[in-house]
Amino acid sequence: MTAFGPRQQTEILGDAFDEVVLYQDQGQRGRADGEVLGLLRQGLENAKRARDVKEIRGELVAIDAAFASLKAGELCLILVDQVEEALGYITKRVIAG
User: Which of 10, 19, 32, 85 is positioned for an S-S bond with 43, CB 3.0–4.6 A?
Assistant: First the structure.
């Protein structure tokens, strides 16, 4: 899972997924460097399920990290900020195998 959003979002997702990939992209919405990742990490503090949490800089790099750890039969939820760019990238990755 990749996620860019409020702590409440990661609270919910942390109870639903074993592995979480948090990312910070260029669009930090006026926040200091690293602050977004810190806020997302706070949302996972009491997660009931998420045990493997990675912090990555860059949306496409985070997508690569999520795909790299994905095993057959697993679900991968990808929440993106740059929708068109990310969907194009994901499509190319899926087609390439």
Answer: 10
Question: Could you tell me the two tokens for 70?
Answer: 């994905």
Domain count across the chain: 1
| The token pair that represents 21 in the structure block | 């990939």
Domain of 51, CATH number, reads 3.90.25
Q: Collapse the DSSP code of 12 into the 3-class scheme (helix H, G, I; strand E, B; otherwise coil) and give the result.
A: helix
The token pair that represents 80 in the structure block: 């993106």
Which structural domain, as residue segments, surrounds residue 25? 2-96
Give the chain's largest Cα–Cα span. 39
Residue 75 and residue 22: Cα distance in Å, rounded? 16
Torsion of CA 2, 89, 68, 43, to 10 degrees: 0
| 31, 8, 23, 51: CA torsion to nearest 10 | 140
User: What residue ranges of the chain have pLDDT lower than 50?
Assistant: none
Write the single-letter amino acid at 63: I
